[in-house]
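Q: I'm a student working through a structural biology exercise. My instructor gave each of us a protein and asked us to get a predicted structure, then write a short paragraph describing it. Mine is N(6)-L-threonylcarbamoyladenine synthase. I'm not confident about reading structure output yet, so if you can add a plain explanation after the tokens, that would really help. Here is the sequence I was given:
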Amino acid sequence: MSSSLSSSSLEQQTSCDDTGAAIVSSNRVVLSEAIHLQQHLHEPHGGIVPTLALESHAAQLPGVVRAALQQANLAATDLDAIAVTRGPGIHACLSVGMNAAKTLAAALNKPLIGVNHMVVEGHALMARMTTTKEGEAAFPFLCLLVSGGHTLLLVVHDVNHYTQLGTTLDDAVGEAYDKVARLLGIAWLPGRGGGAGAALEQLARTGDASRFSLPIPMRHASRAASMDFSFAGLKTAVARMVPALAEQEDDRWRADMAAAFEHTVIAHLTDKLRRAFRWTQQHSIPITSLVVSGGVASNEAIRAELGRLAGEHHVPLVCPPAKLCTDNGIMIAWAGMERLQRGFIDDYSIDIRTRWPLEALYQEWEKHIA
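A: Happy to help. First, here is the predicted structure for N(6)-L-threonylcarbamoyladenine synthase. I'll explain a few features afterward.
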């Protein structure tokens, strides 16, 4: 690549359903993004069908990568590295992206970077690319990852260096949104970033949260000190109330229940974040920001309340733009760039990891700095 341009990283994202590729530069500029959506394949089945996702990835990935290169007006030889989602995710889907990335990197003689699309390497680092103010999302920061598959509370010290404070004991928050939306009979929203959870959020804006009283999880004295999360009981509480409500002629109850559910979720999240702030103060960790990422971070009500909480602790709330909160190629390309800059390069022999525990990332960090 010409010395007049910043280094750039191409990413291929095939962890689950949508097929994405993006190119970013080291100075935080998105040079291109291409994506092929699969919602029309999975919505009739009520969830992701792995075989359909695999077939679509295999058919669409070459064209998506070519489109990303064309949008950036770059040749593949101009790239400095190839980043790919290594895990976690659906085995067959991850394999499509990994095999393509290995072939491309080897053919071009470029570094290959396998990225964990969750946690530090994916969603959390996205905030570092999109922040506009000096010092925001600088290490260390407190990170709340809220998505369909994960609910995690972390201190992010550096790339691959973190302290996990809490996780979900059962359902992830996004999973709870989707399940409650189905209980309420709410249809998916069309387009990118839609789905049942987003539809519930939209309906909740018109509801009266005070009409129904739902239990705020883990407020019992025996569990209040924990920084873990639990949403299964809340979902069950909604499920028990729905049959009787569904017999009413007035459909207004759906919006009110959606609002009550969302209000309770926010109360639960803020409970645990307040404890996390206290923990960082007790351990003298100079937190720079509260980063909230993952698909549920696009929820406006959650953002508003967590923004107030961050203000109480004199740090900014940093969230990626809503369209970048769900899994996307840009976040993997940027994570690849951060890893490239720190020398985290993988062999062409790496394999996918459908499960990728956080402990493994930390062990890699320790080995790298040794």
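A: Here are two points you could use in your paragraph. DSSP finds eleven helices and ten strands in the chain. Strands lie at 8-13, 19-25, 30-36, 81-87, 112-116, 141-146, 151-158, 161-167, 290-293, 317-318. It's a good idea to check both against the output above yourself.
Q: Great, thank you!
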